[in-house]
Amino acid sequence: MNVSFIGRKIKITPEIRELIEKNIKKLDYFADHIYDFKLILKKERHTFLAEVNINVKRKIIHIFTKTEDLHSVIDTLFDKIEVKIRRYRDKLINKRIIPLKENIVEHEEQEMISSGFEESA
Questions:
Q1: Cα angle at 15 between 11 and 19, to 5 degrees?
Q2: How far apart are CA 7 and CA 75, in angstroms?
Q3: Which residue has the higher pLDDT, 113 or 93?
């Protein structure tokens, strides 16, 4: 996973970098599917803006937040990231794994009926 941080009108201090990296570690359960993670922090007047572009397989996830405190904008952003990635991961699971399990169960039931196990019970 390629990770990059960009600060516009903000200097990314080691404290901010450490906070961001700590929050990125929470995404380790999905790190195999994330190819590129680009975080942009901006300051406009009295508000802080944070946006992130996450390249995953066949999709780019874009998330944007805006608050008046730098730490809260980072926390809010990573809360949104976690929800979006979990939703994307669930979509992948639902499209590929669950239909396969249902087909296997139906196939086993048909085999049991055709072999006569249900009639003798």
A1: 110
A2: 16
A3: 93
Q: What DSSP letter does each residue of 57-75 carry, written as one string?
A: TTEEEEEEEEESSHHHHHH
Instruction: Return d(Cα 30, Cα 56) in angstroms, integer.
Output: 10
Size (the chain), residues? 121
8 and 40 Cβ atoms separated by less than 8 Å: yes
Q: Which carries the bigger pLDDT value, residue 27 or residue 109?
A: 27
Q: Does domain 2-120 have CATH number 1.10.10.10?
A: no
Residue ranges of domains in the chain: 2-120
Return the structure tokens found at 65: 């937040």
State the pLDDT at residue 95: 76
